[in-house]
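In response to the reviewer comment on reproducibility (Comment 2.3), we provide here a single inverse folding case reported in full, input and output, so that an independent group could reproduce the run without further information from us. The structure tokens appear first.
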């Protein structure tokens, strides 16, 4: 029971990694606020947790007013906040450039896997619309800032707390098929290191987790060949599970990591070894 008596808010907890974190935190004794932009999936996660131990709050983390209202609802219902996990995210290139970009990805990855000389170029950045760039940065980077700001306002009253933000190996080494995603995830790492230094004197710890390829619905829009490439590129020979990421997040959120702040932990099957 590593989170006995703690209150945790997990964003994007209706699916994939966020859902696994919410379920693991609850199993470790925490009361969990399950945020998602989708009501149906948030409620499904709550239903999988013992009654009275979890609560769903629908909010778009990219909207600062909705984030503020969510934290006010936490104040009025659950009480304090010990742990924030910034997990909500999107992987889809979305927008009008989506089909073109996915076609490019499929052609390029197909050539890479076939062993033929590569002739297809990615050409993702030069075709990207302002809207696609903005939405990616808004959900990941603005969302992490808005939620962290509200959490710190509460954690600073008691001078304790832990914040864990989900970055990615894309934030460590880049990602050619999604440069906007790589930029957002690298931004989360810079923000994590800076805020960790800023709030250390208050006893608040701030860390990041950088997953490799994880088997979640986030990968569904990608051509199936990308999954094959991911397996081949990963030394352990498979995609990770959401539960394997939840275990890393639990460590950083718990008192086991009491001397760990401003760091990233990367469960990635050996994909990145820096
Ligand atoms: N799956 C991977 O391979 C992988 C790898 C590295 C990092 N990540 C990161 O892990 C996190 C979780 O991704 P996942 O793989 O579980 O994907 P997922 O699609 O299964 O879950 C993401 C959840 O976030 C929610 N969400 C999206 N936009 C939101 C918003 N604006 N406000 C609130 N909720 C929102 C979605 O509704 C969904 O429930 C993301 O930050 C993602 O970038 C995933």
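Designed residues, in position order:
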């Amino acid at each position: 029971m590593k989170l006995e008596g703690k209150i945790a808010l997990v964003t994007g907890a209706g699916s994939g990694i966020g859902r696994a974190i919410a379920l693991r935190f609850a199993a470790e004794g925490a009361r969990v606020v399950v945020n998602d932009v989708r009501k149906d999936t948030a409620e499904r996660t709550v239903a999988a947790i013992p009654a009275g131990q979890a609560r769903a709050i629908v909010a778009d983390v990219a909207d600062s007013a909705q984030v503020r209202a969510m934290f006010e609802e936490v104040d009025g219902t659950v009480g304090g906040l010990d742990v924030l996990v910034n997990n909500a995210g999107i992987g889809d290139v979305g927008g009008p450039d989506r089909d073109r970009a996915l076609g490019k990805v499929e052609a390029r990855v197909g050539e890479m896997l076939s062993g033929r000389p590569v002739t297809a170029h990615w050409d993702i950045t030069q075709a990207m619309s302002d809207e696609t760039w903005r939405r990616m940065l808004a959900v990941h980077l603005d969302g992490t800032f808005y939620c962290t700001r509200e959490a710190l306002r509460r954690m600073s009253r008691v001078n304790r707390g832990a914040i864990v933000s989900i970055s990615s190996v894309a934030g460590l080494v880049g990602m050619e098929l999604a440069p906007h995603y790589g930029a957002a995830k690298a931004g989360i790492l810079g923000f994590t290191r800076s805020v960790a230094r800023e709030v250390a004197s208050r006893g608040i710890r701030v860390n990041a987790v950088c997953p490799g390829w994880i088997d979640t619905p986030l990968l569904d829009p990608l051509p199936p060949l990308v999954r094959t490439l991911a397996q081949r590129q990963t030394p352990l020979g498979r995609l990770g599970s959401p539960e394997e990421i939840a275990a890393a997040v639990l460590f950083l959120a718990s008192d086991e990591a009491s001397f760990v702040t401003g760091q990233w932990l990367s469960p990635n099957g050996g994909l990145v070894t820096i």
